[in-house]
Write a structure and sequence with these properties.
single chain, alpha/beta, TIM Barrel, 8-stranded mixed sheet, 7 helices, globular, Elp3/MiaA/NifB-like radical SAM core domain-containing protein, rSAM_sf
Length: 270
């Protein structure tokens, strides 16, 4: 399990709103030290119904140079561990020019030189050409994290993801073609379904993500937050044991082709 819990607070374009230093499975039987920077940037334009990360975003386009300053401030702090991986999460889409100014790509890539892997989040329909341009600037392995959430078509539509399974698959294949790794976020549960049905569709989504070439799959239990079109009180309440069982089943389903982890935001794991 991994745990991070960025909290809502007044945002400044000159300061990342949260930083995590954590050990993450490297997919080879070991662990890599990951520095995760939750960047303060412009709000995501997609507007998924369950998302509460808009609380930590700017209401205006991110000023040029701000993201570079945020990253540099974090990396200037001393660490007890070697810098191996860096995750740059901006509560939206890294290749949305309102969020991460393309003019800053070169400076960001320069700051990422000490790292072996750079992970950013992005929607399949945003900034494909910019993604390839940034990838060309990196010495590290680029990994794109995509919120697929579920392969249940009706739920995917209700979440307001503005993508289909087919468009996700096409994007995943494009990443493979350009030697870019794929990380997938899957949500566990939507309003009005049982915990058993949540587990069944999550496992189907894991298998789909594996076939699409995902290197890492992160299971995220649905939390109330802000959204769900007023139906947050209908979310299934998975117990810790049910989540452990689901994680073990998902690891079995991945069959070694992808790393599977469970995120525990807002929970007190025991």
């Amino acid at each position: 399990m991994s745990q991070s819990n960025p909290v809502s607070r007044p945002t400044s374009a000159d300061q990342a709103y949260h930083v995590e230093h954590e050990w993450e499975p490297d997919g080879k039987g070991g662990y890599a030290h990951a520095t995760t920077i939750f960047l303060t940037a412009s709000e995501c334009p997609i507007g998924c119904s369950m998302c509460d990360l808009w609380q930590n975003t700017l209401t205006v386009p991110t000023p040029p140079g701000a993201i570079v300053r945020q990253i540099k401030t974090v990396l200037d702090e001393p660490l007890d561990h070697d810098r191996q991986w860096i995750k740059l999460y901006n509560s939206g889409n890294f290749f949305d020019p309102r969020s991460i100014p393309p003019a800053d790509y070169a400076a960001i890539a320069k700051l990422c030189e000490p790292f072996q892997r750079v992970v950013v989040e992005n929607h399949p329909h945003i900034g494909g050409d910019r993604m390839l341009r940034f990838n060309d600037m990196l010495d590290a392995q680029l990994e794109i994290a995509v919120g697929l959430e579920t392969v249940q078509p009706r739920w995917l539509d209700r979440l307001g993801k503005r993508m289909t399974r087919d468009s996700f698959d096409q994007f995943a294949q494009g990443l493979i073609d350009h030697h870019i790794d794929l990380r997938v976020f899957l949500i566990v549960g939507v309003p009005g379904i049982s915990t058993n049905e949540s587990a069944r569709w999550t496992r189907s989504s894991v298998r789909h993500a594996v076939l699409a070439g995902a290197r890492h799959i992160s299971l995220i239990p649905a939390r109330q937050g802000h959204g769900w079109n007023g139906q947050a009180d209908q979310l299934p309440q998975c117990s810790d044991q049910e989540l452990r069982d689901l994680l073990n089943a998902a690891i079995h389903d991945a069959n070694g082709y992808a790393t599977v982890t469970l995120d525990t935001w807002g929970r007190d794991p025991t």
